[in-house]
Amino acid sequence: MTTAVAGSLRVSRILITIVTLFYGVAPLLVDLTGTHVFHPDWTPHARFHMVWLLSTNSALAVFALYLMWISRLDDWVRMRVAGVIGLCVLGGFFVSTLTTNLYGGSLVDPVRAVPPIMGINANLLSFTPMLALLVVGLWLGTRSRRGLFCGASIPFR
What we know:
The chain is mostly helical. The protein is 66% helix and 0% strand. The chain has helices at 3-31, 44-69, 75-98, 100-103, 122-142.
């Protein structure tokens, strides 16, 4: 592997790790509070689904971090799979955001809302740059290859 390719892969791994830590840890800090899981107006079943979502996303983050830093799979495969896991998690946020009108949802609790930052919803202000970092990380990690999964082998070291 050339130095340039190894450097791109290293930067890719770091960017994807930052995003993975974001979606694996930040929601726990924000959502295990009175604005979400312990919100007095939420039904017990809604709380159940929130804890399920948080647990699933955090477990996926742990798996992605394992792939990025511990697994003995091929470096390119590890980066791509961890990146796609991140796309699935962040993609779920954006699907939920884009379909709020279909299910009567909202990005914020109208009573306990986090105030906008520079006029932008705090959720969008945090998730959008993370998606951009993830896309850049995947692009850097695959730019010398032909597509995201084409020609990927899964050799063990």
